[in-house]
Design a protein that fits this description.
Structural class: alpha+beta
Strand order of the largest sheet: 1-2-3-4-5-6
Radius of gyration: 21 Å
Strand content: 15-25%
Largest sheet: 6 strands, antiparallel
Number of helices: 6
Distance between the termini: 25 Å
Helix content: 55-70%
Number of strands: 6
């Protein structure tokens, strides 16, 4: 990753300042984190997964530098675990209700097709908000209508994904 250069305009001047992004981590360091994360996630039947995500992201953010400063990951494992518990309860409830009424399963699939873009965007917003550079948090305001339009077009386009991606990426909305 070493050597990626980013340019920014100097305030009021025509000259550019080039900043190089650098990653200072090593494979050995990451392997230690990865193996401990895997073992503890297995031993705790998946509960440690939230802590593993935070450890991994913190490692990568802490070792990624731009203009002499590193990035920070601000989320806590409890925030991630809460989201995972909500998702698990939701899908267990759906599984039980589908056994009671198979029609519910069909209705759920249709609702899920519409909810997937919202879930993905909220996940991206969570990650952006909990990422910082020089104590400035990232974030964006999504255009849910455009995202839903692109997602539904992908679902019902019978596999013409390239055309959908080109159409949806034609005008950025972030």
């Amino acid at each position: 990753m070493d050597g990626d250069t980013f340019s920014r305009q100097n305030s009021g001047k025509d000259s550019k300042i080039n900043e190089t992004m650098e990653f200072t981590g090593t494979g050995t360091e990451y392997f230690k984190i990865w193996i401990v994360n895997i073992l503890l996630t297995i031993l705790t039947l998946g509960i440690y997964n939230a802590w593993a995500k935070v450890r991994t992201k913190t490692y990568f953010y802490r070792n990624t530098h731009l203009a002499g400063s590193s990035f920070k990951y601000l989320a806590t494992p409890w925030m991630i675990l809460k989201g995972q518990i909500i998702a698990a309860v939701f899908f267990i409830t759906v599984a039980v209700l589908t056994q009671v009424s198979p029609l519910f399963g069909i209705v759920f699939l249709l609702v899920l097709v519409i909810l997937i873009p919202w879930v993905i965007v909220r996940s991206l917003m969570f990650n952006a908000y909990n990422s910082a550079y020089r104590n400035i948090r990232f974030g964006f305001k999504p255009a849910y209508g455009r995202i839903l339009y692109c997602h539904l077009w992908m679902v019902f386009s019978n596999g013409y994904y390239v055309r959908v991606i080109i159409t949806c990426m034609d005008t950025p909305t972030i």
